[in-house]
Write a structure and sequence with these properties.
The chain is an alpha+beta fold. The chain has 7 helices and 12 strands. The chain has 3 domains: 138 residues, no CATH class; 76 residues, Thrombin, subunit H (Beta Barrel); 84 residues. The strands form 3 sheets. The chain has a 6-stranded antiparallel β-sheet with strand order 1-6-3-4-5-2, with no helix packed on it. It has a 3-stranded antiparallel β-sheet with strand order 7-12-9, with no helix packed on it. A 3-stranded antiparallel β-sheet has the order 8-11-10, with no helix packed on it. A hairpin with a 3-residue loop joins strand 4 and strand 5. Helix 1 crosses helix 3, helix 2 crosses helix 3 and helix 3 runs antiparallel to helix 6.
Amino acid sequence: MSTTQAWVDNTRDMLLSGYVEELDVLTGAISSTSQTTVTVQGVASSWAKGVVFEVNSEMFYVTGVAGGNTLSVFRGYGGSTATTHANSDLVRVSPKFPTYRIVQSLNDDLSDLSSPDNGLFQMKTTSFDYNASVDGYNLAGLTSDEINSIYSVTYADVGVEATEPEINSWTLKRNRDTTTFSSGLALILYTPAWPGKKVTVMYKSPLTAVSTTDLTANQSLTGLAPTAYDLPPLGAAMALMTTTPIRREFLDAEGTSRMAEEVPPGAISASFRDLMGRRRARLQAEAGRLVARYPQMWSRNSAVRPASQWSGLSDG
């Protein structure tokens, strides 16, 4: 199923490699974000004051245990968000990689994938009616962060068969005065279109972050192509793995003999490099797929103005 939860599970599977964490189950709904008493089946063996557990993407800190299955808790522990939970929801005890941290890493990777250096994006459109007396158009409802770059500007033609000729001369100005351009964006057209007809702007937009609390949301809401659904878990696993070697270097506890002999320093870094190589290859493939779908058209140049715009200007 293509949901955020599936991404979380894929990330955790890569990091744990078959290791099974201790689980329990809620025996009563958590219907309020201020509720500080939680009941579980009690099948987990480690319930005690100081234990941390998670339900969905919320972390809880146990402040007391009564009867083996009634827990007094702090809510929203560790920077997670307190929310409601249903009866029979799964409880993960002392998770090595909390869900909320995995979701944060997934969003960090979606942002990274949207970098021009990585070449992934979602294509979106907006439109407005052309007015011959107006040169600059406000891109209402958008923000500068939502537009990486504009791909094309076309307008509705008239005739027996409607076409959409391309406007090749335009420029996008950011950080405009919001009293004139409420979005802070001004699209300046240097060539005309048909008055009263729709102008359509296609633009490359960053991938959309996933919800930190609704793990049932579909992955398609990010704007990522289905063929690239394997990328965010790879990036998230890499990000979470980078902090793993730090713990073994703490000076307040002696490392186990297994750490010293079976998992020598550098072993974790080798696993990280394997993930990085796999992600790099997949990223190149998906970026190439987008280039093929939306090829660069060198005749399109927002910096070029028609000759009429330069008339009357001196050479010096």
